[in-house]
Amino acid sequence: MALCVFALIASEFMPVSLLTPLASDLKVTEGMAGQGIAISGAFAVLMSLSIPAIAGRFDRKVLLLSLTALMCLSGAIVALAPNYPTYMAGRALIGVVVGGFWSMSAATAMQLVPPSKVPQALAILNGGNALATVVAAPLGSYLASLVGWRGAFFCLVPIAMTAFVWQWFSLPAMHPQARANGSGNVFELFKSRPVVFGMLAVGVFFMGQFALFTYLRPFLETVTRLDVSSLSLLLLTLGVTGFIGTTAIGRCLKIGFYGTLTIIPVLMAAIAVALVAVGASATATTVLLGIWGLVATAAPVGWWLWIARTLPQDAEAGGGLMVAVVQLSIALGSTVGGLLFDGIGYRGTFAFSAGLLLVGAFLVFLTARADRTKST
Q1: pLDDT tens profile 27-71
Q2: How far, in Å, CA of 319 to CA of 104, rounded?
Q3: DSSP code of 171?
Q4: Whole-prediction pTM value?
Q5: Long-range contacts made by residues 236-240, C-beta under 8 angstroms, separation at least 24?
Q6: Helix/strand/coil percent split, the chain, to 5
Q7: pLDDT-derived band of residue 131, with 50, 70 and 90 as boundaries?
Q8: Which helix (H) or strand (E) holds 149?
């Protein structure tokens, strides 16, 4: 499943590093080509809100294999797309896979391993995410220089096929389990105060993260003044520390679950402020972004574990709702961050990010308090 996540995340964000040749070949603008990411996000939201009703009727292994096969088909359609509408259709399919796969990840981990091992299982899954974040963009650019953008997309197909075969033989049958009444409707979950505060915390956290992260490259090029090789090395450092954080966060969550989820956005807010102050120093920026990668990439592990803890009988519905919240929050955060970046510069964007992250930390505190009140 981690290999499948790697192929999935690489497929989702591959266009980022291939927009120029892709747009030129399909005879569209780079902005239109970039809508391939937007349409995958939109279909991910729709699928994530639909998955609880679907998962309640089918074996999860069958669903996961079907989604992996759909990822293979998406890669082939995009690689062979003769025109823009076909390309967008292939991108819509990858959105369906993103929404479905992530929505079921917590529920699948809970069914595969004993409760004490769920944090490690989720960390392994997110390890595939972290690894794809490290290599997807530079690997896409490199492959495109050798075999073209179509060849770069097509290279993901055999990885997805390998994941399909591996899951076919390794995953056991996972028949639908008993769920709480109304779990086919994700919006029923909002009747729970911990869920309301938790989803708000997740949404504000990802808004704050991507308001800054989306515009990191222009900041590093114009403020820190890194050349291309130094920029690639720094982004690689960020990815590597993210991979380390993903594997290590399980221990922190065991020591203090909500404390860890609170400290992460507070640290990130402090880093956002510090970047404004010392962003001209390459050394200081590298250290700060290394810490950012360490905690930011690991945070989703904690939130997926929160789904497993808070909604053990509604894991698909909770997972679907969280995927929808995250996708919408990323879109909103990056949009507002971009408006601020263009309007008043990086300081406004980074201050906006810091403010959201601090609000997110406060919402985690409210989630913890609501959770304790519900338990008593």
Answers
A1: 888 667 777 777 888 898 888 888 877 877 788 899 999 999 999
A2: 6
A3: P
A4: 0.82
A5: 236/134, 236/138, 237/286, 237/289, 237/290, 237/293, 238/289, 238/290, 238/292, 238/293, 239/130, 239/131, 239/133, 239/134, 239/135, 239/293, 239/297, 240/134, 240/293
A6: 85, 0, 15
A7: confident
A8: helix 118-154
Burial 270-292 (b: 16+ CB within 10 A, else e): ebbbbbbeebeeeeebbebbbbb
148, amino acid identity: G
Distance CA 129, CA 304 (A): 13
**Is 140:14 a contact under the CB 8 Å cutoff?**
yes
- C-alpha–C-alpha distance, residues 203 and 89, integer Å: 28
Q: State how far the Cα of 264 lies from the Cα of 296, in Å rounded to an integer.
A: 7
Give me the pLDDT at residue 185, please: 66
Instruction: Using the Cα atoms of residue 252, residue 255, residue 257 and residue 261 in order, give the sign of their dihedral.
Output: negative
151, 180, 207, 322 from 189: Cα distances, Å: 43, 10, 22, 11
The amino acid that residue 358 corresponds to is L
Return the structure tokens found at 75.
């890669």
- Average pLDDT, rounded, for the chain: 87
Residue with tokens 């770069």: 152
* CA nearest neighbour of 36 among 21, 23, 51: 23
Packing angle, helices 346-375 and 193-213, rounded to 10: 160
Residue 18 sits at φ, ψ, to 5 deg, of -125, 15
